[in-house]
Amino acid sequence: MGDVGSGPVLRALAVSDSVLNHIYHNDVRQRFPDVSLLIGCGDLPYYYLDFLISTFDVPLVYVRGNHDAGPQHLSDGRVITQVQGGIDLHGRVVMVQGLLMAGLQGSMRYRPDDPLMYTESEMWWEVARMLPRLLLARARYRRRLDVLVTHSPPYRIHDDTDLAHTGFKVFLTLMRAFQPRFLLHGHVHKAGVNVPYRTRYRETTVINVFPYKQLEFPQAG
């Protein structure tokens, strides 16, 4: 998928919500050559993301989805609580492979007391906590945010009408204020020729990566 015009690009593989046999496979690196960055948009087993890290030997950044709370139990009896070697982006602003990136985990709250679900006001608080980091990064690097990684979509962009899959309005505010070049999300399990997955909102290209997307990001010259 070509998201940019001419010039140097960084190639990334973004995944979310579904384990795919042709990606969870020994020849995945041959299927997706020249990948320099892995991006997880949530609701994926940690072993799947660990496999991608070890196979591609490139950085992985990720956010957790609403189904990622608690430890994960493997078939061999091991229990894992995080992605080994991955960078959990939630609430953080980091420079990875020349891209300025930030992330926000979780979905709209449809069950009480779930740590990875948020009401609209709770997500506003998560954004407010990240705000100083966004401002500091903008001052330090003198550039806009390249990629905002979320699990849920923004409100009325690729979302659905049920509460569980309703997007967050605060993401619209965040895009207006910080103008990230891209917002990548998962959570909404829609794919097909006639299903829109790429939408322009002001200065931001919003992409639903479910179940995976090959992406190209412009590199700063």
Could you characterize the architecture of this molecule?
With 221 residues, the protein is an alpha/beta fold. It has four helices and 15 strands. A six-stranded mixed beta sheet has the order 7-8-11-12-14-13. The chain has a five-stranded mixed beta sheet with strand order 6-3-2-1-15, with helices on one face. Strand 7 (93-96) and strand 8 (99-104) form a beta hairpin. The radius of gyration is 16 Å and the shape is globular.
Q: Compute the gyration radius: what is it?
A: 16 Å
Give the strand line-up of the largest sheet.
7-8-11-12-14-13
User: What structural class do helix, strand and pairing data support?
Assistant: alpha/beta
End-to-end span in angstroms?
21 Å
Q: Mean pLDDT score, rounded?
A: 93
Helical segment count:
4
Task: Describe the largest sheet.
Answer: 6 strands, mixed
- From the spread of the alpha carbons, the general shape counts as globular
Unreliable segments of 5+ consecutive residues: 1-5
Q: What is the N-to-C order of secondary-structure elements (H for helix, E for strand)?
A: EHEHEEEEEEEEHEHEEEE
Helix content: 10-25%
Instruction: Please report which band the strand proportion falls in: under 5%, 5-15%, 15-25%, 25-35%, 35-45% or over 45%.
Output: 25-35%
Number of strands: 15
